[in-house]
TrEMBL record:
InterPro entries the record matches: AAA+_ATPase, ABC_SmlMolc_Importer, ABC_transporter-like_ATP-bd, ABC_transporter-like_CS, ABC_transpr_FbpC, P-loop_NTPase, Transp-assoc_OB_typ2
Domain ABC transporter: 6-236
Record protein name field: ABC transporter ATP-binding protein
Iron as UniProt keyword: yes
Pfam families per record: ABC_tran, TOBE_2
PROSITE patterns found in the cross-reference section: ABC_TRANSPORTER_1 (PS00211), ABC_TRANSPORTER_2 (PS50893)
Keywords linked to the UniProt accession: ATP-binding, Cell membrane, Ion transport, Iron, Iron transport, Membrane, Nucleotide-binding, Transport
CDD domains: ABC_Carb_Solutes_like
Originating organism: Gordonia alkaliphila
A GO molecular function held by the record: ATP binding
Keyword Iron-sulfur included in the entry's annotation: no
Stretches that traverse the bilayer: none
Coiled coil: none
Length: 328
């Protein structure tokens, strides 16, 4: 049976009359990565701060490694919670070198130098270990922040939007690298992010937080393929509501296809005109405005068409079918 490293049970946080977290429940197994995903303002950073002891809770209980650290009677200080934090901007000390930044949180002098060198090597920064943060790239600074958080060997690592300030290419590379480092080290991690790609790529478990409540939790595959509702589904990309065969199907752009308009398939096709075409490299995203009476005026359907296939022109009439629709 897998050990639970973090347990959040019925936790609420309020600022005055405003409830930010409402009866939040989640568990993080030891040695796993859990992503808390949600839009800005949903309460995910407040949740991380509450776990780290930087925000008092108004109800519920938080336990780390089997020890209760927050409830209605107890509030363990942040420095005694055994939680390492990687903030969004890294928050490195500008006057300290890489080595001294990494060693800052190691309380014991005994073995500190060896531990620092171990972390420097782990994150691949041996060649810049004597530089100060101003002389590092954005990706290097985030790796220093990760090494500093890992250096005291905490029970839990919390990462608060750690890649959001980086450009797209670097964000992808560093995301892969950080995931590898966390798994190589065997760390238990809680990643707070608004980016669904990060959540799906890095996590063993995804917890979807909306309006201060956990709307769904499960494996990345489960929350993507079987979202609890449309709001959850829309976090992971476009959703189409296609009225076919007497019912409304909620499907993603790659689950529908363009087809010639056919009278024999009436009821199994949504007919409309091409309103937009976007070239995305390996595919085109074709936007169709259905003309059927069953659709509201603002409804559009997005369809993924592989780049190797011919796409219609703007204004052309076309039909949309479910890709998995069985033949007549």
């Amino acid at each position: 049976m897998t050990e639970t490293m973090l347990n959040v049970a019925g936790v609420s946080v309020a600022y005055g009359n405003r409830t930010v977290l409402d009866d939040v429940n989640l568990t993080v197994p030891a040695g796993s990565i859990t992503a808390v995903l949600g839009p800005s303002g949903c309460g995910k950073t407040t949740l991380l701060r509450a776990i780290a002891g930087l925000e008092p809770i108004t109800a519920g209980q938080i336990s780390i490694a089997g020890e209760v650290v927050s409830d209605d009677r107890r509030q363990v200080a942040p420095e005694h919670r055994d939680v390492g934090l990687v903030p969004q901007d890294g928050a490195l000390f500008p006057h300290l070198t890489v080595r001294r930044n990494i060693g800052f949180g190691i309380r014991s002098r005994a073995g500190r130098a060896g531990r620092v060198e171990e972390m420097v090597e782990l994150v691949g920064l041996s060649d810049v270990a004597d530089r100060r943060p101003a002389k590092l790239s954005g990706g290097q600074r985030q790796r220093v922040a990760l090494a500093r958080a890992l250096a005291p060997a905490p029970s839990l690592i919390g990462l608060d939007e750690p890649f959001s300030a980086l450009d797209a290419g670097l964000r992808t590379r560093l995301r892969t690298e950080v995931g590898r480092l966390l798994r190589q080290y065997g760390a238990t991690a809680l990643l707070v992010t608004h980016d669904p790609v990060e959540a799906l790529a890095l996590a063993d478990q995804v917890v979807v937080l909306l309006d201060g409540k956990v709307r769904q939790s499960g494996t990345p595959e489960d929350v993507y393929v079987n979202p609890a509702d449309a709001r959850v589904g829309e976090l992971f990309g476009d959703l189409n509501r296609v009225a076919l065969d007497g019912q409304v199907h909620v499907v993603r752009p790659h689950e529908v296809r363009l087809a010639p308009v056919s009278a024999s398939r009436a009821g199994q096709q949504a007919v409309g005109r091409v309103a937009a075409i976007e070239f995305r490299g390996s595919y085109h995203l074709v936007v169709v405005e259905p003309s059927g009476a069953e659709f509201e005026a603002e409804t559009v359907i997005s369809v993924v068409v592989p780049a190797a296939e011919t796409v219609p022109s703007l204004g052309d009439e076309t039909a949309v079918e479910l890709a998995a629709l069985p033949p007549l």
